[in-house]
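Q: What does the assembled structure look like for these inputs?
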Amino acid sequence: MTANVAAQHDTSANRSKEAYSPYAPPSGRVVEVIQLKTSKTPHRGAWVQELERVRDKRDKAAFADLFQHFAPRVKSFLMKSGASDSLAEESAQEAMAIVWQKAHLFDPSRASVSTWIFTIARNRKIDALRKQNRPEPEDLAWGPEAEPDQEDVLALQQETTKLAQALAELPQKQKELIERAYFADLSHSEIAAETGLPLGTIKSRLRLALDRLRHRMK
Amino acid sequence: MTQINHHLSAELLIAYSAGILPEAFNLVVATHISMCDDCRAALAAQDAVGGALLDEVTDVQIADDAFSKTLALIAEQDTKPVKIAPPSKGVLPTPLQEYVGGDVDAIRWKSAGMGVQQAILKTSKDAKVRLLRIPAGSAVPDHGHRGTELTLVLQGAFRDETDRFGRGDLEVANEDMEHMPVAEIGEDCICLAATDAPLRFNSMLPRLAQTFLRI
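A:
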């Protein structure tokens, strides 16, 4: 049985590596060149519209804006997690290509754009840096097809902003602990020992986000 | 669905969200979340912390041709939209079925002694995960733990010194804990158990068997 399972995993791992191989030439297709804008930094909340334009209209200019903001951050996250400059560069490009590919699964009433891209970057980290398969939970039956309620979208944005504020207001030491939990490759027992305190302090804000998400799921 | 009373700890949620758990533990967490909406919401909130950190991170220089290279990757992508697997209708949630190659009837059980059967699933080597089948009314030998053991109930229920664990319940056992899980009468108990260090049995016979059974 184990042999069967192993064979299955190898196939899926190979498939995903082939699909995103950064070394392969662009198979003779002409790649449209979009000039990256340099100084425009839209408000965080605005990224929802950009991602929705990518999702609904396959809009490359909107994708370029997202890329300019998020690609360097994703690369930074991967380097803090221990990737070399070249591996982080390559994986950041792969992560952004996945953003394009999975844009139809983005639901702004369930996650902010930053959160959604974080989960993609996190999965790249497991795949590329740790060379492990990542089992994903089942998705919920209500899926992303139904048009999300605008009130839910707004409420989620507000909770996300509050969470970011709570995080920004933490004393430097506690913030560093949380960053280390996410960015450095600490073992989970080290995290268990170290993160109890900072988590406690943002708990009330986190609970608001939680309550809202839980409400949305009923 | 029955009430789930034992959930993921905050530490497990952070570690799963940060992406630093061994694959074996990730499988237990993903399987529990598939059955538990409370933990699904808690994970979403935890991922939001990761998103907030990503916004705050100092960015680094990316290559001049990064964007055109990314567009080249996109041009190679399969144009069919990525489909999300539908929720499982069987006993085993979808992430676990992917490791087993099917539902309960696809599990290749092997004897683990004393009536208990097991099936080891293939994951990365930093931790191990197995399915256990404990016959209704019988016990797993009394044991302690060197590292962390996660036990998730998929069918039936067991009791130990601490509480009762039914379908969807997750028990987290660490070094301080010694227990002897006993399956409830009525139905065989099937669990998914992950360990990051070998168990410590308190009697000689299971200790000898341990070498052969890779527990």
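The mean pLDDT of chain B is 86.
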